[in-house]
Structure formats: structure tokens, C-alpha cells
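Here is a typical protein record:
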Amino acid sequence: MIPVLKKEWKSNFKTLTGWLFLAITLFFTGWYFKAYGLDEGYPYLSYIIGGLKLIFMFTFPLLTMRSFAEEKRYRTDQLLFTAPVSARAVVGGKYLAALLTFLTTIPLLIVFMCILSVYGDVPFKENIVSLVYFVLFGMACIGIGIFISALSDNQIIAAVLTFFVLMCSASVSGIVASAGIKNGVLLKIFGLFDLAKPFDNGMYGTLDWADPVYYISVTILMLYLTVFVLTSRRLHVKTSGILNAAAEMLKLVLILAVMAGCNLFVRGLPAESRSIDMTYNKIRSLSEDAKAGIADLKDEVMIYVYCSKDKADETLDSTLTYMSAYNDRIKVMYIDPAANPQFYRQYADREPGENSLIVTSGDRSRVIEYTDCYKLNYKYAYNAVSDTYVVSGYDVTGYDGEGKIVSAIDFVTDASLRKIYCIGGHDEAAPDTELKMRIENAHFELADINLLQYDEVPEDCSVLFILGPLSDLTDDELAKLKKYTGRDAGAIMFCAYTDGEIQKNYDSLLAGLGIKVLEGIVYESSEAYYNNEDTYLLPQIEDTPWTQGIYTEGRTKYIYMPFAKGLKLTEAAGVECRTFLSTSGNAHINGNAEEEGPFSLGVFVKKYLDKGSFRAAVISSDYFLDPEINRAVGGNNHNLFIKLLTSVAESGEVADIPVKNYEYDRILVPGSVRTVMGGFFMAALPLMMILIGLIIREIRKRK
């Protein structure tokens, strides 16, 4: 095998074919790297590899067309039949030579990944899975090309047939859909020829062992068929040809049976035992928080999926499969609306959408709409007729099914439901969609309230939100809020910087809790404590119970707080205050030397009462909850907020499951770097390959 491998490897690069393959591959690899990695800032190799899949449909035939077709054309195949080399060694050598040529692109893709990691965070595990699937896909395609080359004596015909077969195998799902095939047996048969589906699955960062087994099976089968073709030609010159042919045919049948058995066995394994989720947020499996949320179930929970099994959403179905496998008290049943159209009426007044979930336990139930299981970023367009902005579309940017399901299970198995009231009427900030999802997933019900319409804060209020009022509280509101601070309850309160009136009543409320709000805005002088502008604060995170998981000794994680007010702790009877966010000692207020840091930016308050206590978290910037600000620090602002929420509510351990965003934050690569690298990988490197190939060809001609 080794001599054949060396001969084929050298022959690939003694002609222009191998160098042309490299040039084309390098050009398109560089093209996609420039477009997706450098320009768009995607840290995923799957974008590049997904684009290369179609390109390799054209270039794989270049690698394999001459493997055996050229041998037959020049009658050198007779030397192979009579040489003291087995057919397996010949096929293996030629296959490995083509595979090694293909694998020359892998180091380049690894270089791309390393370049991107210089300018931002890169999901290395997910990228490695993509590379593994890319190699497996290439192995199978080259095996098919080698086999087709063995059937033909013309390189061009071999190349065209290889291209045709590869394109058909990559388009099986489209062919099945256009043909309207719905029969389960036929779908499984067609699925045997679908090379693209396992490849596409691997681009999402999950290694399913059924896919490598499938690709390896296809590769082995193609190589064995190639050996079978070569052996059958040898049999013509042997006296015992019939017996040998029968033996070879029996071997082929046995190999087919073994391959089919291996694939059926692996695919029959439970999804959770045959898959390894390498995604950074475990989007294809259960997070540890979700496992904790369903681990101690005492009641049976039934989850109805409102759709037929064949129309199930793959991600939701995967989550439900993992949950039912992790805890056998969770049962899942699919309800076909066409067969049972009235089923939903016992749980909802209106029909839920397809793939919606109905979670039940005993006499309690909750409906989870399918669209609520995903994070949607809506797009808006101006409508000149109505003079309003209307929704023109949306992008799906995250998955929240896991959190919604755990929250619903918590709801139907626990009669208690904590209520949050969010005060309005003062131009306060409002929780964005993602934060609302997390609040609901933590088993809280959120409602708006205007205190002017109530005699007091409602008795069922567990936590009161005051999200940075821009105008002051009225005397009546202040009296109601001071009365509320005498209850066994909680509050989260934000301060907002404004050039308007001084908020005497709101400041008075905080003063009663041992916090003095300083006039003006905080400026930082220590560069490590602000971002670009000295009012865009990156506060010191103190080591407290509320900052666990965010606090690090080396300040490797950040909280972001633009335009914050300064807080000072004062004495108040029966009140205990503890700072969890603070400035450096070089901070100051509006340049006033009399007000110098450090200042508190986040304070946890506990007011002891005759029965119980009043808990409050005070944060000095209303930009704290802004989704863009939160995204800039990887979600740490919202993570801290949820920890504070559960603490002030004294709700104990809550299965707080963040929305699983589909992608890392994009990487920003400087324009000059994009230009230089794009030119090198798209132009200089491919031209270098072609030039080397032309030089080698000229040298051979002169010899």
C-alpha cells in the first residue's frame, strides 16, 4: 500500500491537476473566510465549511477521476493485476493519496480559527466538531469517486458521473420533498443515500455517533466495491473464476449485512447516549440548571406536544427526549390536531400553534406557545398608510424551550407563584423580552402597576420593581412605598441620572434604607474601571453571595453601568447594608473634589422587622438592564439581576435557565487586517499554487 500511496501522491503533484485542486480550494476557502470570518465576524468554521461543501462537489472529481480510469485508458491496469500487490493495497494507496490531498485544507482552516481567536472569543469545541464532520464527509465522497473511476476508462466520464452522484446524494431531501414522498419505509431508504443530512447536523456542534458510523460505512463499502471490481477483472484470467466470484459475492453480502447492522444498532440507541453536545451553551442537550430543575420531581408530569410526530420541531423534541430520559416521571405524548382537534379545549380557550406544549400535573396545567420557545428579534418597516412601524419579519437568535419547560413543570407541581409588580408612571425603564423570559422562567409573574390607582402595594406582591424613575414620586406614592418597606417582602430599585428636578421623595425612600444618593454622575479616573468613556463604568465586583459566578479574583468578568449615580452608605435603625458593586478610589462626582470615591454602585439592603425582613437591591444606573449593555458583557448584568431577584424574594434555589443564544458575539477584525488577509488567502496563495504547478509541468516537459 505504501509504494502505491507514494506513487499516487507524487503523481498528483507532478501534473497540474493536484495544484489546480489546491488553488481552487484555497481560493474559495479564503473567499468564505473573508466573507464570513473577517467581514461578518462569525467565529464559526461551519459557515466556511458549509460554503465549501458545494465547491468540493466540483473538486472531488478532479482528485478521483484519474485513479483507475487513466490506468485502464493506458492499459497500465494490467500491470496492477499481475504485480505482486493485492487489490486492497492498490485501492487503499490510491484512496489515501486522494484523501491526504483533500486534508491539506484542514491546517488552513485551523489557521483561520486561530486568527479569529486573536480578535475575539471562538467556540473551539464546536469548530472541532465541524472539522471532524468535514473530514468524514470528504472521506465518503472520495470513496464514491474512487469507485466510479474504477468503473470507467475515461477520466471525463468518471468526473461527470462522480459530480452527478455527489450532487444527487446532497439533494436527497429536496428530491423527496418535491416528489411528495411520505411513506416511512421509502423515507428510510432514501435516507441511506443522503450524504448531506449528517453533514448539516454536524455543523451545529453536536457529535452524533450515528453520523461517523454512517460515513465510515459508506467509505468502506465504496472501497470494497472498488476492490470487487478489480478482483472481478482478475478472475477472467484464472481457472477458478466462478468459485472466487461466488466467494467474493458472499463477502460483499456479509459486509453489507455488517454495515447495516452497525448503523441500525447505533441509530437505535437513545439520543442522549449516542450524542455528545459540544456547543458552548449545551443547546442540543440539557444544561446542569435544567437537570437540577427536574431532578427532584415528586409528581407525575405529562407534556403534550400539539402536533403529529412527523412534524415535530427537532430542537424541542430533543429537549423533551432528554428530559423524559433524565427523569422517568416526565412523560411526553404527541397529539395530532387533525386527529384530535378538540383536545386543547380542556387546557386553553384558544387553539395553540403547532408544536406548542401543554404541561400538566394533577389538575394544574400551563400552555407554552411554540413561538415563546425561541428568542425572536423582530424587524420593523414604516407603513406610510397607517403612519406607523409594523413588523416586517424576524430573526430567530436563541432557544428558550428548556427554560420554558422547566418553568412550566415548576408551575404545575408547585402551587405557589411569586408576583412581581413593576411601578410605572415616571418614565421608568422596562425589562426587555429576553429578561422577561428569564423572570418567567424563574417562576415569577410580572405585572405593571400605577400606585396612584391603589391604596397600597397589593398584598400578593413578592417583589416590587422601581426601574429608574425619571420624574419624582408623589407624596402619596412615597407614603405607600414606605409602608411597603415595613412588610416581609422585597424590592429591586434603580436610580436614573437626569438633568431634571432633584428626586427628593425617591431619595428620601432610599435614605430610610441607609443609602444616600449623591447628586450628579460618577466619573472614573482609573482606566481599568471604565470602557472608552469615563462615565461608562466597569465597577469592581465584590465577593458576595449575590455575585457568585460573576466575581473573579482577576476581574475576568465584568458588569457594565453607563451613567451611574454615586451611593454612600449611612446609618439607619434596624438596617444592614452591603455593597456588591463599587467604583475605584479615583472616581469622582461631576469633577467635584469634595465627592471622591470609592462609591457604592450596587447595595443589598436588609431591614429587620418584628416578623421577617424587608430586602432590597439598589443599583445606581437605569442602563443596567439595557439589552445592548448586557450583551456587551456576555449577559452578566442579567445574570446578576436574576440572582438579586431570587435573593430579595427569598425564593430559594430557582432553576434560572438563560436563553440559549445561537451564536457567540461576532468578532470585530480591523479593516486593514481584513484587506491584507483577504488578499493573501484569496489571491496570493492560490496563484502561488498554480505557478508552482506550471513550473513543475514545464520542467517535466523539458525532460
In short: Residues 2-279+671-702 form one domain. The longest strand covers residues 388-399. The two ends are 29 Å apart (CA to CA). The chain has three domains: 2-279+671-702, 281-415, 416-661.
